[in-house]
Design a protein that fits this description.
- The protein contains ten helices and 54 strands.
- By secondary structure, it is mainly β.
- It folds into six domains: 181 residues, Galactose-binding domain-like (Jelly Rolls, Sandwich); 109 residues, Sandwich (Immunoglobulin-like); 279 residues, Glycosidases (TIM Barrel, Alpha-Beta Barrel), CATH 3.20.20; 68 residues, Immunoglobulins (Immunoglobulin-like), CATH 2.60.40; 111 residues, Sandwich (Immunoglobulin-like); 127 residues, Sandwich (Jelly Rolls).
- The protein has an eight-stranded parallel β-barrel, surrounded by five helices. Strands 3-2-4-9-6-7 form a six-stranded antiparallel β-sheet, with no helix packed on it.
- Helix 5 links the parallel strand 24 and strand 25.
- Helix 2 packs parallel to helix 3 and helix 4 runs parallel beside helix 5.
- The longest helix has 22 residues.
- It is globular and about 105 Å long.
- Bound molecules: beta-D-galactopyranose.
- The site of beta-D-galactopyranose (GAL) has 12 residues, from loops.
Length: 958
């Protein structure tokens, strides 16, 4: 073959390869979950030694591109760090301390605990050579907080907010056909909210890949106009051209129904975009016989946006949406699809027992479903942007949402926070309102507040004119922010005169954005301030706050109020008002922080839902209190309820709407029975029995068949029965858990606000560096022995410091030390060695652990026998032939590595609190049977079997 021919042939091969590569990727979009296999270690906010010398280089990563140092450097050795999956909240893994923050639930992080307030995450991903030319971006759903991200040593961005979703295009920084390191430094020293917020990468991380001509990030916006049975869907798509040349293209919009059938399409051709320009393409698609999204049947459509350049499909982007109308009316409240709906809402933070803020998607779904089962139809994301998965759950289950911005303000940064929230979330049919803020006392009643609120409101409207703008107001409902809000949000009846305010502003729609803040401990019926027990009868909690019944009655009876949002649906960590240490979670929830119902749940179910409900409180285990008068309450939506004690009627009473019934009953052990009547007919009964001692453990999962995707979970209720199989409502037994099979336990809880037990049982990893490394030149590997005999190395040089690389000795003896804790029995001690020579022999405390080891790029791992180790100072000696430098500026490794002391996790356990505890288990990616055994002293143990079945996994880079 002539030279020309062979060039042509090679060129052709290259073209074929390129075509193949594009074909393989469909030219289109891919999204990979990056949750698995991260390395984690604590750094330090101020002590650079404890922050792995990060930020100490002469030229910092802010001085020169790619100069990330310490863990930010591509080559940093993180082998000794802990391995974990996201989402991860390191705050929940810490001990409690009275020196820690009240509002954040006394977990030992924050200013007083600098060693637990900065976290480093690192992960290596492979990027195939065929990706060259695509746009590749990292997407973080949220990191708490103040995070910096490096890719291959380049600082690619920073995000101060702990709640914003953020994205970084890293295409140019990547090594194609090779490995790439992502490093994230997270600083949770500072708090954003006055409630538990967790710490770390507590939401998903993704890697997205697109063709340079693609739909912009969160680039679609779908709205619908409903005309009788038909709808006009307006689809806007922002297309961006990140090629270096002008592109001509077409956009095809397709509406697909829930069955996968195409119901409308439109196309626009001959669109052009110059490099790096974005253009909005708008099309109207008529949908006949549109199925509406509503609370009972939350029907979802999909918009498929296809970008075509010539005949090549360059992007295909899917947007889930719903067709529905919403309207707030100043006199009649809220309307969904023209139908009046009273908002029966709860406020909630992102926090759950056992896992803190790192909620698996299924847990978010389960929580929304649990609220819906209570009869709730609305959710306020107080006081921060939620995860995309929470909104997806609300879309799928039919739950209306107030989506809330974190910090009020109108500077570019503050507006940008709100803008990103709205642009990310505006296609969710569940969202009915953007809340621009909550209880901003410094500005609430001032002209500055009114100005800020007006600008934020107008700006929000410019991004989405279809949702109402609201905010939570508490400072007396006086002039200021409340004057200008589209929808007034009243926080608490006790904070001002709502009726008077409505009279003054009769044309302003309104709702109760917060009501309640009542106190209750689940399963407790006598207040005991010493024990921090708050009786779970729904009573007025404080002079200026009202009971749930008082609050709901007020809102239910005023049609001009669109509804109310209870503070809160679930208990959360922090704000243990009215108590302090050792109370660590709130008392406000209708459910505790495991989602176990307090009795209020049945009050609400009675008046918020159509489910026939009859519930008696308290429990009937009061040994020693025979004859004592006990208030017995019934929550019910029956017309009448009759109460019996041991078959003897204590009277039949008529239920007033939105109310409850009470009998004063002299305690006698036995059976309390309530019989509910509707239209004179017996329809329901509820029975509460005095139980015996706990005899057997019970495990009840929320589902028994799981997906083997490494993400799915089972939420398992732990309880105990007496010998007659009655659940014991007062039990406090400690239960231990053992899991076998393809799963893991990710958290335990029991809803006790004063429990200082561990939420998670994880391995403890300490890493120990080598200190005081000295060296002495020797004549060769064989001649090193004599240097080893020297007991005193104080005359030796500091290792590597004085080496003359032009005149290297044939070999060097190095000596340094490392410190082991006083007690490391039960721990694995591993030496992660990095070559400091071409060939090396390693001794620990005089015992050889490796001989004539060849230089290795990956390093070597030695699991050390305890017999060669001792508490306190240990000696490391390395005899090595030196690694020469070709150029003066070459970097030669000078650090022989790290010792890891790993103490395995102890047995997972938890005490029951008033008869209940919760354990959450998660699948791995392997299918099989997971067995969970629960044991308790003196109790019959039990084993639960859960199937984890093969499933289509989300694409991920592990
Ligand atoms: C409100 C506030 C909530 C919570 C609640 C506790 O004023 O908006 O975030 O702190 O009080 O009662």
């Amino acid at each position: 073959m002539s030279r020309l021919k062979s060039y042509l042939f090679l060129g052709l091969l290259f073209l074929v390869h390129l075509a193949f590569a594009q074909e393989k990727n469909g030219g289109g979009r891919q999204r990979f979950l990056l949750d698995f296999n991260w390395r984690f270690a604590f750094g330090h906010p101020s002590d650079t030694k404890k922050d792995f010398d990060h930020g100490t280089s002469y030229f910092s990563y802010l001085a020169k591109a790619g100069y990330g140092d310490g863990p930010a450097a591509a080559k940093f050795d993180d082998r000794a760090w802990r391995q974990l999956n996201l989402p991860h909240d390191w705050a929940v893994e810490q001990e409690f301390s009275p020196q820690a923050s009240f509002s954040h639930g006394f977990k030992a992080i924050g200013r007083n605990f600098p060693g637990r307030s900065v976290g480093w995450y690192r992960k290596t991903i492979h990027i195939p050579a065929s990706d060259l030319g695509r746009r590749i971006a990292l997407e973080f759903d949220g990191v708490y907080r103040d995070s910096k991200v490096w890719v291959n040593g380049h600082l690619v961005g920073a995000e101060p907010s702990g709640y914003n979703t953020f994205r970084m295009d890293i295409s140019e920084y990547l090594n194609y056909g090779a490995d790439n390191t992502i490093a994230v430094r997270v600083d949770a020293t500072m708090e954003e909210g006055w409630y538990y917020e967790g710490a770390g990468i507590y939401r998903h991380v993704w890697l997205s890949k697109t063709n340079p001509l693609h739909v912009a990030p969160h680039g679609t916006f779908v709205t619908a106009q409903v005309n009788n049975t038909n709808a006009e869907v307006t689809a806007r798509a922002n297309i961006i051209n990140e090629n270096k040349t002008v592109k001509t293209f077409s956009v095809l919009q397709t509406v697909v129904d829930a069955a996968g059938k195409t119901v409308a399409t439109q196309r626009q051709d001959n669109l052009t975009l110059a490099p790096f320009q974005t253009q909005e393409v708008r099309m109207v698609l008529p949908v006949t016989n549109a199925r509406l999204w509503d609370l009972e049947s939350p029907y979802l459509y999909k918009l498929v946006t296809t970008v075509l350049a010539g005949n090549q499909e360059t992007d295909r982007y899917e947007t889930s949406f719903g067709i529905r109308t919403i309207r707030f009316d100043a006199r009649e409240g809220f309307f969904l699809n023209g139908k009046h709906v009273k908002l029966k809402g709860t406020n909630n933070h992102q926090d759950h027992a056992g896992v803190g803020t790192a909620l698996p998607d299924e847990l978010q779904y389960w929580r929304i479903k649990t609220l819906k089962d209570m009869g709730s139809n609305a959710y306020r994301c107080s006081h921060h942007p939620p995860t995309p998965e929470l909104l997806e759950a609300c879309d799928k289950l039919g739950m209306l949402v107030i989506d809330e911005n974190r910090l009020m303000g109108t500077s570019e940064q503050r507006i940008d926070d709100m803008k990103r929230l709205i642009i990310r979330d505006r296609n969710h049919p569940s969202i009915i309102s953007w809340s621009i803020g909550n209880e901003e006392w410094a500005i609430e009643n001032s002209i500055i507040g009114a100005r800020i609120a007006t600008t934020m409101q107008d700006y929000a409207k410019s991004l989405d004119s279809t949702r109402a703008i609201s905010a939570g107001i508490s400072g007396g409902f006086r002039s200021g922010i409340s004057d200008v809000l589209e929808v007034m949000g009243y926080n608490y009846l006790g904070n001002g005169d709502i009726e008077a305010h409505h009279k003054q502003f009769p044309n302003q729609p309104s709702m109760g954005t917060e009501e309640g803040s009542t106190f209750a401990t689940r399963g407790v019926y006598v207040t005991d301030l010493e024990k921090h027990y708050q009786a779970a009868y729904d009573r007025k909690p404080r002079p200026t706050f009202y009971s749930i019944e008082e609050g709901w009655t007020f809102y239910a009876n005023r049609p001009w109020l669109a509804g109310m949002f209870i503070w809160t649906g679930f208990d959360y960590r922090g704000e243990p008002t009215p108590h302090g240490w050792p109370s660590v979670t709130s008392y406000f929830g209708m459910m505790d922080n495991c989602g176990f119902p307090k009795d209020n749940v049945y009050y609400l179910r009675s008046w918020w839902s159509n489910q026939p409900t009859l519930h008696l409180l308290p429990h009937w285990n009061r040994p020693g209190q025979e004859g004592k008068e006990i208030p017995v309450w019934a929550y019910s939506n029956c017309d009448e309820v009759e109460l019996f004690l041991n078959k003897k009627s204590l009277g039949r009473q008529t239920m007033k709407p939105n109310s409850h019934l009470e009998w004063k009953v002299n305690y006698a052990p036995g059976t309390l029975e309530a019989v509910g009547y509707k239209n004179g007919k017996k329809v329901l009964t509820d029975v509460v029995k005095t139980t015996g001692e706990a005899a057997a453990v019970q495990l009840t999962p929320h589902k028994t068949s799981l997906k083997a995707d490494g993400e799915d979970i089972a939420v398992i209720t732990v309880s105990v029965n007496d010998k007659n199989k009655l659940a014991v409502p007062t039990a406090g037994n400690e239960i231990s858990f053992q899991l076998k099979g393809p799963g893991r336990i990710i958290g335990v809880g029991n809803g006790d606000p004063t429990s200082l037990e561990k939420d998670r049982f994880i391995e403890d990893i300490k890493t120990v560096g080598i200190t005081d490394l000295k060296e002495k030149p020797v004549a060769g590997m064989d001649n090193g022995q004599s240097a080893f005999q020297e007991t005193n190395a104080s005359g030796w040089d500091d290792a590597f410091k004085k080496r003359d690389y032009k005149n290297l000795a044939p070999a060097y003896v190095h000596r340094g030390s490392f410190e082991l804790p006083a007690n490391f029995t039960g721990a694995d001690v591993t030496f992660f060695y990095k070559s400091i020579g071409r060939e090396q022999t390693i001794y620990i405390n005089g015992k050889e652990i490796a001989q004539n080891l060849k230089e290795s790029a990956e390093g070597n791992v030695f699991k050390l026998d305890h017999s060669i180790l001792k508490p306190g100072q240990n000696q490391l000696e390395i005899l090595a032939t030196p690694i020469p430098k070709k150029y003066d500026w070459d970097n030669v490794n000078q650090d022989p590595g790290t010792f890891q002391i790993l103490t395995p996790a102890s047995t997972w356990k938890r005490k029951l609190f008033n008869g209940l505890a919760q354990i959450i288990i998660q699948t791995t990616k392997d299918a099989g049977e997971i067995t969970l055994t629960a044991t308790g002293q003196g109790l019959k143990s039990t084993t639960l079997k859960v199937k984890s079945a093969d499933t289509e996994k989300r694409p991920s880079i592990d």
